[in-house]
Write a structure and sequence with these properties.
Elements: H1 3-20, H2 33-44, H3 46-61, H4 70-89, H5 95-103, H6 106-130, H7 132-143, H8 152-172, H9 174-202, H10 233-241, H11 243-246, H12 254-257, H13 265-293, H14 299-305, H15 311-319, H16 323-357, H17 364-367, H18 378-393, E1 403-405, E2 408-410, H19 416-444, H20 459-478, H21 486-492, H22 496-514, H23 516-519
Antiparallel strand pairs: 1-2
Length: 522
């Protein structure tokens, strides 16, 4: 049988499976194995995660924080195995929503999808605003524009431009999205392994043993961020430093969001999820190790490299003196952010499309509309652009004084966008936790997977391990410990993240009852 005929048989099989699940093929099934992997890998994006969070990790935990990477990687691998089995059995757009809906029920699935969808839309705003300092830096290098990356108008214009281009490319077709993601994967390899090799060639300033040191991070007097862990590393600094890794190792589930556009989805989606996570772990470890070993060998330079005033840019500038090479690296970082935001937007649109197709959103026919020309959920993609743009405007909402709200304090000079970004990771973990809990419930009720990827007799064991990891990490993410604590000041803003989850829950109730499908008996 020719490759073309094989592809046709595979496509027919996937369409039949989709019909068995109650849907017809509307989207264009054009994503190759590598494109499916790339959508997941660029959403996970080691470059975006490390270039954004290196200081949080090394500043709170010292060089030794690199080994904490094993915790979320192993924990999330169990999660990826659970998702892989679900994605193989339910190769449908909307991934987590569909997994939870079919595992427990429509209402349960709706709430999983709600928190996940909002987290995705916030993540687009976070990623596209996060690239602003790199964009202004290269514009300054090339055109001497002297743009201030902290200025609200600059943030808005750069973010608007990025979202506009991302939306146009995503609307044009899944194949274009796949090509952007595929090129983004190569950029990720250059930006992690390539940069590590360049730093190694320039000469590391420390031996491998440096990666096992804390550099006094557990003591407030020697902590570069002024964080006070009372001299405790494992039960203090490590609990915060591990969050720098926890923020990176998700996004692999995006392969499930584009399942209806993936060839041989039942086989490829599980493979793409696991491969994206493993590739992300390897490249992340290489880059973090290289950046840490490249820190100049003097106390002042270390303090700068491990602080928000220095960080990765300081390390690269110290090691690499070629302006041309630094510009190439800046372009790589910018494209990594761009492809990451593009993949998240694509995933969020498929989630909205999947919701609307089930009449689980307001104006479901409008949101679920598929372009006859491009075979993409065009209106869902437009929503995936407008909502993050609205979130970006919240950067202007930043009180000059502390605001007391019942028993909590909203800290001064903290923009509403910053608060939402703090929620985004917690929202992802909450959705993951509820999805795995749904899989656990389904197994208790006797669910038997029928996809190409099955966990077999170890299914319950893997599911329980995934659930335990997600519960513990979610608690570590959201637990309020005071605004002056390292967690409260550097991440969850004490009670703010939990209050946003509660507020979004209230908004969710309104949206739930506005959806025509939810007002009927389901």
């Amino acid at each position: 049988m020719s490759d073309k005929n094989k592809a046709q048989v595979g496509s027919g099989s996937e369409e039949s499976r989709l019909q068995d699940l109650g849907y017809r093929q509307e989207l264009s099934r054009v994503l190759s194995k590598f494109a499916s992997f790339s959508v997941a890998f660029t959403y996970l994006s080691p470059m975006v995660g490390i270039y954004s969070l290196f200081v949080l990790g090394i500043g709170t935990g010292g060089p030794r924080y690199i080994w904490l990477m094993l915790i979320p990687v192993i924990g999330m691998y169990f999660v990826a195995m659970v998702f892989a089995e679900l994605g193989s059995h339910y190769p449908i757009s909307g991934a987590l929503y569909q997994y939870a809906k079919n595992s427990v029920g429509p209402k349960y699935g709706w709430w999983v999808g709600w928190f996940y969808s909002v987290s995705l839309l916030v993540s687009i705003a976070a990623v596209d605003t996060g690239v602003v300092p790199y964009v202004t830096s290269i514009l300054d290098n090339w055109f001497n524009l002297k743009l201030d990356p902290s200025k609200h108008t600059v943030i808005l214009y750069v973010t608007l431009t990025l979202i506009l281009v991302q939306t146009i490319l995503n609307v044009t077709g899944a194949k274009v999205m796949g090509r952007v993601a595929s090129f983004g994967s190569y950029v990720e390899i250059f930006g992690t392994v390539g940069i590590a090799l360049i730093l190694a060639a320039a000469g590391f300033h420390h031996g491998f043993g440096f990666l096992f040191k804390t550099q006094g991070a557990e003591y407030v007097k020697s902590n570069p961020l002024g964080a006070d862990f009372g001299g405790h590393w494992w039960l203090g600094a490590a609990l915060i430093a591990v969050l720098a890794h926890a923020f990176i190792f998700y996004g692999f589930e995006a392969a499930g969001d584009v399942a209806e556009e993936t060839k041989e989805a039942s086989k490829q989606v599980p493979r793409a999820m696991r491969q994206a996570l493993v590739a992300g772990a390897i490249t992340s470890f290489i880059l973090v190790a290289a950046l840490t070993l490249a820190i100049p060998n003097d106390p002042k330079s270390y303090a700068t490299a491990a602080s928000f005033s220095g960080g990765v840019p300081f390390i690269l500038q110290s090691a690499i003196h070629s302006a041309f090479l630094r510009d190439i690296m800046l372009l790589a970082v910018i494209f990594a952010f761009f492809s990451c935001g593009s993949s998240i937007q694509g995933a969020s649109a498929r989630m909205l499309f999947s919701y609307a197709r089930d009449n689980a959103t307001p104006a479901p026919k409008f949101i679920s509309k598929v372009s006859a020309k491009f075979q993409t959920p065009v209106n869902a993609l437009l929503l995936g652009a407008l909502i993050p743009l609205f979130f970006t405007l919240l950067v202007n909402v930043s009180p000059s004084k502390n605001i007391k709200i019942w028993f909590m304090t909203y800290p001064a000079n903290t923009s509403a966008l910053t608060s939402l970004v703090a929620f985004a990771v917690s929202g992802i973990y909450l959705a993951f936790l509820l999805t795995v809990l749904g899989a656990f419930i389904a197994r208790i009720k006797g669910w038997q997977p029928a996809g190409h990827y099955k966990l077999g007799g170890k299914g319950m064991f893997v599911t329980v391990l995934a659930l335990v990891y997600l519960v513990l990490m979610f608690i570590n993410l959201v637990i309020p410990t005071g605004l002056t604590s390292p967690r409260g000041s550097l991440f969850n803003l004490d009670w703010v993240t939990l209050m946003i989850i509660a507020l979004l829950g209230l908004v969710g109730i309104v949206v739930f009852f506005l959806a025509p499908g939810n007002r009927k008996k389901r």
